[in-house]
Design brief:
By secondary structure, the protein is an alpha+beta fold. It has 26 helices and 23 strands. A hairpin with a 1-residue loop joins strand 4 and strand 5. Helix 4 crosses helix 13, helix 16 runs antiparallel to helix 22 and helix 24 runs antiparallel to helix 25.
């Protein structure tokens, strides 16, 4: 027999001998106790006869080189056996942990993909976006002239490039479709650090004014339209009816800015705008060694110099923002709140399991005392219990990981498209590491207090009891009560936060937008720029043909749909009033271009004056304004008959007479208050891009597509029901409210189960006491109310703690709320009553069971 075999054989013999000695020792100790000996004498006499089996095993292990690691493996096997002995308790603990860990893992996968993961570009930390700032500190787009000065005068940023986006029709040897186009200046791709996988970026000759149009395709478009053909380079397609040659294909995943799939050079069309026209966004890469602070200081110097030279730049500043923060910043507060909320769910799960472990440890008091009597040290007992908890948390983590795979897929499918980088959400190695860490932390959180309590077992008192089940001591009871109060408080915070978001969303979804969108169909139309001279004729013909479709009640066009986009805005002049010396102090308003029937289609009533008429496009320019405009610019006066002109509205601004007044409409969004708004006749200001709004049957879509195709074969048509667009405008708020409500519901269930479990175990530990009370004449109703009063005190305390925590923490929700404050008294009152009722119901079942006990059976319980 080789040495290793002899080693394992000796180990087996040692364990068998130790087990046999331990069994005889326990019998002898119990016999001595029954004979009336004190616990100390009973233990000493037994040891004199049989020795210490634990010492024998430890000595043997030391002689043969067994270490603490080997003992830990033994403890691991013992932990599995102990968990199998209480399958219901183990399953409840694993399920609670799995729910908490699974929800945290799924939510962390979202936060990692959106907020933590670096951008998929070389040296992403060096990429910045540069903005102009208004007098109020808000960010604004950049004028073309300012951009050129920035590029020439700054010393901290290289490859400074301007960009913008548009949606244009793309056609060729395929079905026409609308695509998002990135219009970029030179050095754009160099700044991003991304090269084409086919062809090249724009050459200098392709970026000169008047050069033949060239484009670069996105990978997805190359795959869907050209089947990833290697012969795509040099092919000609039509962008807005103009021929353009494909010179490159970008790699998979590159779609900056705003998920663009086609890129055009901006320089081929000279920019003749003034310094007051803010039409661009700017991106750049910091020089080696530069930081955001040094780049900001450098650009501040440039901005101060321009402000001294140009009146248009007075009261304007420059802001340098990390591109990562620019992309992820708007959604960061909501995602961090949701991650914190799901962390609370895990904390409640840990509290639940801690209570279960206290209950389990209380039932093992005699076992712990006997092991101590046999020579096991407190450290050994503590290690054994911690290993049991880690095993339990590992099982919960593995089960939670399975739930996380499913939860991540659900989140990826339900997250609004407005949240960036959702396509990167997945369970990867970092998420797995997070799950492992959370599982280990959970094991320590819920295990350390029960382990400390159980390892401090009083050997004399416990062995003197001589019972199969130990008593539930004051220390364990107090710890259980504190944990119950804690989970009620945490659940209270989550429920109040969820209630505030749900109430906010409900109010937002039911706000009166000022127009009727039900039954409306929208169709996005872009006439090719090659047919720019025919846009008025094509638009009139389109409206005429659509109105002739059977079943169509109204057909109108608008430059921007309400709630879908804020649309254009600008400064204007009121006839008879001089313009301020500072361009930033000009009167300002939003404007929309609409056709006749627009107000009728959306059921926007006329308050005074008239609406647009069919022959207005052949007469003087006219406008319709909303109430906010009239009150702001003509307080105490009649706005009808006044004349205004937008300074950047047309190439040659003309005065428009205000002929009508309509109520305020929430054009900027359901959650935003109406602002001054001007409606102009689209027939007097023709636009190649607009949206058709139709009131008619569902079958109208196919007929509209045929009408458009007859007018131009290069125009794709995209249909959306208007009610769908309105719902999409608040989809982020819906997602936030639904997810937080789910977490709160999960917390409520876990807290209720925890309260029920603790109360049940407390009642079970007090069976003998309750039997005595009933035997001495206490009525069942008295016992019932006694148990409920004790539970009620815990509930009231927990609710009070939760209210205080909610008042402190829900302030972070203020930016996400609409129509409700973070300290709304009604919400706090209703949630307090709801949680109190649910928690009291969880206490009622154990209390009723206690009141129904038979005194004789209760007295014989132990």
């Amino acid at each position: 027999m080789n040495p290793l075999s002899r080693l394992f054989q000796r180990r087996r013999l040692d364990r068998e001998l130790a087990a046999e000695m331990r069994e005889h020792l326990e019998e002898n100790i119990q016999r001595n106790l029954d004979a009336g000996q004190s616990p100390a004498d009973a233990r000493a006499n037994a040891h004199r006869q049989f020795g210490n089996p634990m010492l024998h095993v430890e000595t043997s292990r030391e002689a043969w080189g067994w270490t603490t690691i080997e003992q830990s493996f033994q403890d691991f096997g013992f932990a599995l056996r102990m968990l199998r002995k209480t399958p219901v308790l183990t399953a409840a603990a694993v399920l609670a942990l799995a729910l908490g860990i699974g929800a945290n893992t799924a939510m962390f996968s979202v936060v990692k993909a959106v907020l933590l993961a670096s951008l998929p570009y070389p040296d992403p930390g060096q990429l910045v976006q540069v903005w102009e700032t208004r007098k109020d500190g808000g960010l604004a787009s950049v004028s073309g002239l300012n951009f050129r000065d920035w590029r020439d005068q700054n010393r901290s940023l290289r490859y400074l490039s301007s960009f913008g986006t548009d949606i244009e029709p793309l056609s060729g040897d395929f079905q026409p479709q609308r695509v998002r186009i990135g219009v970029v200046s030179k050095d754009f791709f160099t700044a991003m650090g991304v090269a084409p996988i086919r062809g090249h970026t724009f050459l200098p000759d392709e970026q000169k004014p008047g050069a033949a149009p060239t484009i670069i395709l996105g990978y997805d478009l190359w795959h869907s339209l050209f089947a990833s053909s290697e012969q795509v380079l040099g092919k000609t397609v039509r962008i807005s009816g103009n021929a353009a040659t494909i010179v490159g294909v970008m790699p998979l995943g590159f779609d900056f800015p705003q998920r663009s799939q086609v890129w055009l050079p901006s320089e081929i069309t000279p920019d003749t705008s003034t310094r007051s026209a803010h039409n661009y966004k700017v991106i750049g890469r910091m020089n080696p060694g530069a930081t955001l602070n040094t780049a900001q200081a450098d650009m501040n110097t440039v901005g101060a110099r321009l402000a001294r030279e140009y009146a248009d730049d007075r009261d304007r500043g420059i802001r340098v923002v990390s591109l990562h923060d620019q992309i992820a910043g708007p959604v960061k507060p909501a995602l961090m709140i949701l991650l914190g909320a799901v962390g609370f769910v895990l904390l409640i799960a840990c509290v639940n399991v801690a209570n279960l472990q206290i209950a389990r440890a209380s039932g093992r008091g005699r076992e712990m005392a006997m092991r101590t009597a046999l020579g096991a040290g407190r450290g050994r007992l503590f290690r054994q219990l911690i290993i049991e908890n880690v095993v339990l948390s590992t099982l919960g983590g593995l089960t939670g990981l399975a739930l996380a795979w499913w939860g991540t897929a659900v989140l990826r499918a339900s997250i609004p498209a407005s949240i960036p980088r959702v396509e990167n959400i997945r369970v990867d190695e970092w998420v797995l590491a997070f799950t492992a860490g959370v599982s280990l932390l959970a094991g320590l959180l819920f295990g350390i207090f029960p382990a400390l309590t159980a390892s401090r077992a009083d050997v004399n008192d416990t062995l003197k009891e001589g019972t199969a089940k130990s008593t539930f001591g004051p220390r364990q009871r107090l710890l259980g009560q504190v944990l119950v109060i804690g989970e009620i408080g945490i659940a209270m915070v989550l429920l109040i936060g969820a209630a505030l978001l749900v109430e906010s969303f409900w109010k937002l979804a039911h706000v009166n937008p000022g127009f009727v969108f039900s039954g409306l169909l929208t169709a996005e139309i872009s006439w090719p720029s090659a047919q720019e001279d025919r846009v008025p004729v094509l638009s009139r013909q389109l409206l005429s043909d659509v109105r002739a479709i059977p079943g169509v009640e109204f057909a109108a066009t608008t430059s921007v749909l309400p709630v879908q986009s804020q649309g254009p805005d600008g400064g204007f002049q009121i006839e008879g009033r001089p313009l301020p010396s500072n361009v930033h102090d000009y009167p300002w308003a939003w404007y929309r271009l609409v056709s006749t029937d627009y107000f009728q289609a959306l059921r926007i009533p006329l308050e005074r004056g008239r609406l647009f008429q069919e022959n207005d496009d052949r007469g003087p320019q006219v406008a319709v304004v909303n109430e906010a405009f009239a009150k702001h610019f003509f307080p105490g006066r009649d706005a009808l008959g006044q004349r205004i002109r937008f300074l950047g509205f047309d190439r040659k601004p003309q005065y428009m007479e205000i002929v009508g007044l309509v109520p305020d409409v929430r054009s900027l969004g359901l959650g935003l208050a109406p602002e001054p708004e001007v409606f102009a006749d689209i027939g007097q200001h023709p636009r190649a891009y607009f949206t058709l709004v139709v009131k008619g049957p569902e079958s109208t879509a196919a007929r509209i597509r045929s009408v458009v195709a007859a007018l131009s074969r290069d125009v794709p048509v995209t249909f959306h029901p208007m009610d769908q667009l309105v719902a999409q405008s608040i989809e982020r708020q819906r997602f936030q409210a639904a997810l937080l409500a789910l977490f709160a519901a999960l917390a409520l269930v876990l807290a209720s189960v925890g309260i029920y479990g603790v109360q049940s175990y407390m009642v079970d530990r007090r069976t003998n006491e309750l039997g005595i009370r009933l035997a001495l004449g206490a009525r069942p109703r008295t016992v019932l109310w006694m148990i409920l009063r004790e539970g009620g005190r815990l509930i009231v305390t927990g609710v009070a703690v939760g209210v205080a925590g909610a008042l402190a923490l829900t302030r972070t929700l203020s930016s996400l709320l609409y129509g409700v404050t973070a300290s709304d008294p009604a919400t706090f009152l209703v949630i307090s009553a709801l949680l109190g009722a649910v928690a009291l119901l969880a206490c009622f079942a154990p209390a009723r069971r206690a009141a129904a006990k038979d005194p004789v059976i209760a007295l014989r319980y132990e």
